[in-house]
Amino acid sequence: MHAYRTHTCGQLRNADVGAPVRLSGWVHRKRDHGNLLFVDLRDHYGITQCVAESGSAAFRVLEGVRAESVITVTGPVVRRTPETVNTQLPTGEVEVRAEEVAVQSAAEELPVPVFGEQEYPEELRLKYRFLDLRRDRLHRNIVLRSSVIASIRRRMVAQGFTEFQTPILTASSPEGARDFLVPSRLHPGQFYALPQAPQQFKQLIMVSGFDRYFQIAPCFRDEDARKDRSPGEFYQLDLEMSFVTQEDVFAAVEPVMHGVFEEFADGRRVSPRPFPRIPYREAMLKYGSDKPDLRNPIVIADVSEWFRGSGFGIFARAVEQGQVVRAIPAPGAAARPRSFFDKLNDWARGEGKPGLGYVVLEGGAAKGPIAKFLDAPRLDSLKALTGAADGDAVFFVCDKPLDAAKFAGTVRRKLGDEMELIAKNEFKFCWIVDFPMYERDPDTGKIDFSHNPFSMPQGGLEALETKDPLTIKAFQYDIVCNGVELSSGAIRNHRPDIMYKAFEIAGRTREDVEAHFGGMLNAFKFGAPPHGGSAPGIDRIVMLLADVPNIREVVTFPMNQQAMDLLMGAPSSVDAARLKELHIRLELPKAKN
């Protein structure tokens, strides 16, 4: 018999009754019934109930061990009586009668109990992550993550992609988030950077003559945490393809995303292919976001012209001054009490807005603060523009175009949640396309890239030389699922002449481009294929499939929101000798009084 186990704790069934077995695992739970002691023994695969009779050597050992101690139990498999069968466990029809028990490792008193679903402060959970990971829900999330990555890898290889590994120590890039820097011992005063993404390397792989690249890539960014973004590091399915159009990239990514989500949907519906393509401007108008949750049926409408010259002076004057009015229909809201509308107004003021104008549609007429400004023709026009009908309400937002779009999107999400309009058990995908190549910085007034500076402008060099930069679109795209941006991607700018001009418009000189992107730019001068790619985030994919609100629930050893690893004690100070070896002298900020 094996020293530790003949079976796992999730393996035994009725067919094993009578067989001598040996199991090893953690003491999940103990129940003392006087003459019998029941122990639920847990390992990675499941739970098996073990039972010891009072007076036996096994009873005496089990009586003294704490929960989460690691033990080995030897004994025969017996069938449970019908009234004691546990239908919640795959092993619930049998148990092991403990004849021998060996304690492999005794546990001290637990700071975070493993049994049960009670919640504990996140800081405590992260400090004792190895205990937290033993809990069933989190354990299943991590196994799901592994299975998702394996599925992605299998699907990518089946499509003819080749897996590569790109450098972790590389050069610092001025674009995107802050780099994590690594001092060089051999080159005093110089630093490597951890890659924010393998962007330049994967493009160089295409220039090197390979055709379809992918990797499950670690990325490092010194940025703040959010519920859908880990501080410090994350993983993405990084991919790149040569001689492709935007639609070719979509045709490669969609089967992978659709297939993975269907494989792990667990009864939830997945958008059929092809996924909808929504231009950026349309997304901002209809949904108030470039990552819309299409499970929400509310569609925003532009009613600026409808208010121009109307009797509602506040909106009419705002429209004349260049502002816009967005209408957000609320299906069925007419049946809501007055307090529903008052709370939404209070919420809007809490968001820094003056409030929410609204009308309620009932009996062919309108009620509410703005209703008196609606004659019959205007009311009919409003219904036509918004799709609203009797029984609905319509809320209004008035502001500068971008601010109005964003707040209307926030109202749309708020109504979707408050009114429980968002479809359940569904994954709704879309592509957001035709992003603007440039935007104007509201603080400096300067033109800068709005998305990825390495993207090919639509219209190429001619567009850059002849068009207003703010009207130029790029071959850039995002894939979105349930309001979560899974990936940004683009058809790349593979021509040096177009790249120089694109950066010139954004205020970068030829010398700047060569200094910061010289490796990739130099490669482009020796024959670069048209190429493009994308990089769906692994953490966000698993977060959606696991149906958890926080990305730390699908990462094995995450940092906290302050980018601290509470388990390993990172970041930490380094002794003076090590700093001297790296030619580093610290100049720490003065402590605040």
Task: Give a summary of the structure in a few sentences.
By secondary structure, the protein is of the alpha+beta class. Helix content is 30%, strand content 23%. The chain is globular.
Describe the protein in words.
- The protein is α+β, with helices and mostly antiparallel strands.
- The chain contains 17 helices and 25 strands.
- The chain has an eight-stranded mixed β-sheet, sandwiched between helices. It has a five-stranded mixed β-barrel with strand order 1-2-3-5-4.
- Strand 2 and strand 3 form a beta hairpin.
- The chain is globular.
- The model has no long low-confidence stretch (mean pLDDT 93).
| Terminal residue distance | 66 Å
Structural class: alpha+beta
State the helical fraction.
25-40%
Number of extended strands: 25
Mean pLDDT rating:
93
Strand content: 15-25%
The biggest sheet amounts to: 8 strands, mixed
Helical element count? Answer: 17
General shape: globular
Radius of gyration: 30 Å
Which parts are unreliable, with pLDDT below 50 for 5 consecutive residues or more? none
Task: Walk across the major sheet and give the strand order.
Answer: 7-10-11-25-24-23-20-13
